[in-house]
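Practice problem: predict the structure.
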Amino acid sequence: MALARAAGRAGAAAALALLWLLVCAPGDAGCHLLTVADLFDRVIRHSGRIHSLSTALYAELLGKSARKCHTSGMLTPNRKEYAQKIPREELTHLILKLLQAWKEPLSHFNQHIEHQELPDDSLSKAKQISNMVHELKTGVEKVTEKMQSMGIISNSLNGMASSEAAGLSISNEANMMSDSDFIHCFRRDSNKVQSYLKILKCRIMPENSC
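Answer:
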């Protein structure tokens, strides 16, 4: 268990390092201004780590196909060509909504599995995922603020994500899922978040030829 706690602390430290890079102010020691591309690279890498952790945890729980996920009512296109047609503001909003929708369920899930006889490594992964999703949402919010300040997207997103996702985030359906169903749904959504971030970056910076 001590090793699991140490791993969890290491994951949290990595997440906090990402957050510091995103929010440090000009003039701070060791701080440098980040471009929109830099910010996108950081949140995309972070979302990739989250998806990898959820994939590993899903395999450890021997998960199978899940029933309907609590976020299934959200319009989240699976195919890249459909996601590419969504306006920038709406796609940014969708990313924030998905992240917000998992905030409370992940907290509940961590409390639940603490009482299960699971390997320490699995418990550590679950804790890291919860912490990293919180930091990723903060990072995406910082990217959004940067894009708004540069006039890349409008300011119409302010205050929208948390209010619209509040009902989803406290869904009893999510909290009542089996462990494998829960991780299956989260793994699915974490992959969508990473894909949408990549699409958004490519649409804003087409010079990357992606």
